[in-house]
Specification:
Elements: H1 3-12, H2 29-40, E1 46-50, E2 59-65, E3 68-74, E4 80-84, E5 99-101, E6 105-106, E7 113-114, E8 120-122, E9 148-154, E10 157-161, H3 169-173, H4 175-184, E11 189-199, H5 203-209, H6 213-219, H7 221-225, E12 234-239, E13 246-251, H8 257-264, E14 294-299, E15 303-308, E16 311-321, E17 324-334, H9 339-348, H10 360-373, H11 400-412
Antiparallel strand pairs: 1-10, 2-3, 2-5, 3-4, 4-9, 6-7, 7-8, 9-10, 11-17, 12-13, 13-14, 14-15, 15-16, 16-17
GO molecular function: 2 iron, 2 sulfur cluster binding; anthranilate 1,2-dioxygenase (deaminating, decarboxylating) activity; iron ion binding
Protein name: Anthranilate 1,2-dioxygenase large subunit
Pfam families: Rieske (PF00355), Ring_hydroxyl_A (PF00848)
Length: 420
C-alpha cells in the first residue's frame, strides 16, 4: 500500500476498529509546523498559567503557547492579559525574565515600551534629535502594539487563544472539564513551586500518555506496588462531548490486595517484597468528599491538571520541535492549609516531576518510543485496548481517550502530508 493510500485509510476510518497513527506525525517537521498554525494558533484555547502566579498589579510571567513566546500580565485594574513576547520594532523578546513585577514592559534592544495590556507607549527618539532622524511623520503608535491574545479564566486557570472565532473557553472545555477544574480549584490556592522537565520526544506522545490508564499500573512500579493506582481500582475514563479532553480518576480505597495479586500475577510492577523504609511519603489526608485519590485531567492541547494523593499541580506542555518538549509542573496547595498539610504536599511532590518516583518513567516511555520510530515513513501504532473506539469507560483498561485525541488531531491537522 502506498503512503497516499495509507493516508486515505487513516482519514476515512477514524476510530472504527482500533486507531492506527502514522509514526511520521511524531518525527516529520511538516506536521509540527502545521500543528503550530492549526492547533496552537488555531481554534483552541491554550493554558498559560495560574491567576495565583500573577496576584499583584504589575506581576508578569513569561511562558509559551506552542512554541510562541508570550507574556501573562496583571494590569493595574486587576485584569489579566496575554501578549506575544516579541517587540513590534525588530522582533526581539520584550521580556527575558521568567517572572517579575513591572509598571510597563520595555524591550532592551531599543527601549520601545509597552503598557501591561501590550499597547505601545514609548519610542525613544521618535521625533529624532536636533531635527535629524526620527520615525516617519505618519508613524502611528497604535498600529505597533504587541499582539494581544484573547484571555479567559476558568477556576483560576488562565487560558489564551490566537483565534477571534473560537468559542468561549468554558464552551471549549465543556462541562465535565469545568466541573473537574472547579472541584480541585475549590478555594484560594498558594503556589508551592515549579519543576521543569525537558523530554527528547514529541509532545503528542505525552498527550497519549496522559490519556492512557492502561499503562499506569504496568509502567509505574511505585503506583502499583504501593497501591496508589491500579487498573483494578474503581475508576473511570471519560471525555468531553467533542472527545478532545480526558478525565481519568480512581479511588485507592477500592484496592483489594489479594485479588490484585491474582490479577497482576508475577508482573514486574506488582512486587509485594518491596518495602519503604520511611512510610511517611504515603502518609496523607483524605481531602475530597468523593474519596477520589487520583485525577489526571488532560486538557487539549497543552494542559494536565492533576491530583495524586495530596499533590496538586498543573503541567504545561511547551513545544520545542518535533522531537523535544518541556513539561512545566507548577505545584500548589490551598491558602488555608496548615503546616502539616503543606509538609505532606511538599513531600508527596517527590512522586512526580522529572525525578519523581512515578512520573520520571513517563518521560522515559516517551523517549523510547521516539528513539524507535525515527525514520519510519509508513509504519503505524495500533491503539485498541477497550474496544478500539473513542468511548467513555467505567473501568481503567482502555485507550479510548487516546483515540479521541487523534480524532480531533485528524480534524485539525490531518495525516495527509507526504514525507518531505
Amino acid at each position: 500500500m502506498s503512503i497516499r493510500q495509507q493516508t486515505d485509510a487513516f482519514d476515512q476510518a477514524p476510530s472504527t476498529a482500533g486507531c492506527r497513527v502514522p509514526y511520521r506525525v511524531f518525527t516529520d517537521r511538516q506536521y509540527y509546523d502545521r500543528e503550530q498554525e492549526n492547533i496552537f494558533k488555531g481554534n483552541c484555547w491554550s493554558f498559560v498559567g495560574l491567576e495565583a502566579e500573577v496576584p499583584q498589579a504589575g506581576d508578569f510571567k513569561s511562558t509559551f503557547v506552542g512554541e510562541t513566546p508570550v507574556i501573562l500580565t496583571r494590569d493595574s485594574d486587576g485584569s489579566l492579559h496575554v501578549v506575544v513576547n516579541r517587540c513590534a520594532h525588530r522582533g526581539a523578546l520584550v521580556c527575558r525574565e521568567m517572572r517579575g513585577n513591572r509598571a510597563s514592559l520595555e524591550c532592551v534592544y531599543h527601549q520601545w515600551a509597552y503598557d501591561l495590556k501590550g499597547n505601545l507607549i514609548g519610542v525613544p527618539f521618535r521625533r529624532g534629535l536636533k531635527g535629524q532622524g526620527g520615525m516617519p511623520g505618519d508613524f502611528d503608535m497604535s498600529q505597533h502594539n504587541l499582539r494581544q491574545l484573547r484571555t479567559e479564566t476558568v477556576g483560576g486557570l488562565v487560558f489564551a487563544s490566537f483565534s477571534e472565532t473560537v468559542e468561549s473557553c468554558r464552551d471549549f472545555l465543556g462541562p465535565i472539564v469545568v466541573e473537574q477544574i472547579e472541584r480541585i480549584m475549590c478555594k484560594p490556592i498558594t503556589v508551592l513551586g515549579d519543576q521543569r522537565q525537558r523530554i527528547r520526544g514529541n509532545w503528542k506522545l505525552y498527550a497519549e500518555n496522559t490519556r492512557d490508564p492502561y499503562h499506569a499500573s504496568l509502567l509505574h512500579l511505585f503506583h502499583n506496588t504501593f497501591g496508589l493506582y491500579r487498573s483494578t481500582q474503581t475508576g473511570e475514563a471519560l471525555m468531553d462531548a467533542n472527545k478532545r479532553h480526558s478525565l481519568l480518576y480512581s479511588i485507592a480505597a477500592s484496592n483489594d490486595d489479594a485479588a490484585d495479586k491474582q490479577a497482576y500475577g508475577d508482573a514486574r510492577t506488582f512486587d509485594t517484597e518491596f518495602k519503604l523504609q520511611d512510610m511517611s511519603l504515603l502518609k496523607g489526608r483524605q481531602e475530597f468528599a468523593d474519596n477520589v485519590t487520583l485525577v489526571i485531567l488532560a486538557v487539549y492541547p497543552n494542559l494536565v491538571l492533576q491530583q495524586i494523593q495530596n499533590t496538586l499541580a498543573v503541567r504545561q506542555t511547551v513545544t520545542y520541535g518535533p522531537d523535544e518538549f518541556e513539561l512545566v509542573w507548577t505545584h500548589f496547595g490551598y491558602q488555608d492549609d496548615d503546616a502539616e498539610m503543606q509538609a505532606i504536599r511538599l513531600k508527596q511532590a517527590n512522586l512526580i516531576g522529572p525525578a519523581g518516583l512515578i512520573s520520571m518513567e513517563d518521560g522515559e516511555a516517551v523517549e523510547i518510543v521516539q528513539d524507535a520510530i525515527v525514520g519510519e515513513a509508513s509504519a503505524t501504532s495500533y491503539i485498541a485496548m477497550g474496544g478500539g473506539r473513542a468511548e467513555d469507560a467505567d473501568h481503567l483498561v482502555t485507550e479510548g481517550a487516546i483515540i479521541g485525541f487523534w480524532d480531533n488531531y485528524r480534524e485539525m491537522v490531518g495525516f495527509d502530508l507526504e514525507p518531505a
